[in-house]
Amino acid sequence: MAQHHDMAEVVRLLSVRKIYGRQRDGVVALDGVTVAFSKSSFTAVMGPSGSGKSTLLHCAAGLDRPTSGSVLLAGQDLTTMREFELTALRRDRIGFVFQAFNLLPSLNIEQNVTLPLKLAGRRADRDQVRRVLTDVGLDDRVKHRPGELSGGQQQRVAIARALVTMPEVIFADEPTGALDTRSARDVLMLLQNAKNAAGQTIVMVTHDPVAASYADRVLFLVDGQVVDELRGPTSDGVARRMTQLGTWTQRNGRDRPQQDAVIR
Q: Which side of the chain, N or C, has fewer Cβ within a 10 Å radius?
């Protein structure tokens, strides 16, 4: 039977738990997370180190299977899919941007960007590829190799590569972590533009309040649970909230309030 879901929701996690190691004495990375990401939204995910940010991203993207709970992408439950189905889904409907640019040094910029299409057995539409490279400001560098570009330019290539398949959602894990302030701003504006111009859904893990301020909302994770959210965030507001979370976790230790509220 088809799952009933809000078409505006691109990704939904329902009571997602992720335990590494044995169920009884393993490490709980996610502890019952229920959260939805709607179409054409930009969400930043923040929290102290070890709070489960990357695990949340990996489970939402189908890179990691939850121990329990379900992950829906456009109404399809990723947790019941077989590995080859997941691979095809990630390739066709999801874009990834990581802190390490993950470009292939022996390929030129154009070849790096069209790689996802080649892997999917799809012909690269030259106009589409050129448009994406123009959008990221690298249309004059198509024959260069990654080693000839700055870090900021390489991350823009990685964003072009994520955009070229026209994915429904882009998952970005610390995309500005290795960049200087100006390059970081360029990258964040590109992600904002993907949301505004193409209606894509962006989910970004970051530790930087300035980066988070480019998002529409910020989710705060502590001990594998969503404990708070900010809409229309400012960098000051995010920094303040992060500081409060730091003192709050120290004060409460493990005796934090149970929270399984649906964050919309």
A: N
Render pLDDT for 143-164 as a digit per residue (tens, 0 to 9): 999 999 999 999 999 999 999 8
pLDDT in tens, 75-97: 899 999 999 999 889 888 999 99
In a domain, 113, yes or no: yes
Establish if 72 belongs to a structural domain: yes
Q: What is the span of the domain harbouring residue 140?
A: 9-252
DSSP characters for the chain?
-PPP--TTEEEEEEEEEEEES-TTTSEEEEEEEEEEEETT-EEEEE-STTSSHHHHHHHHTTSS--SEEEEEETTEEGGGS-HHHHHHHHHHHEEEEESS----TTS-HHHHHHHHHHHTT----HHHHHHHHHHTT-TT-TTS-GGGS-HHHHHHHHHHHHHTT--SEEEEESTTTTS-HHHHHHHHHHHHHHHHHH--EEEEE-S-HHHHTTSSEEEEEETTEEEEEEES--HHHHHHHHHHHHHHHHHHTT-PPP--PPB-
Is 259 part of any domain?
A: no
This prediction's pTM? 0.88
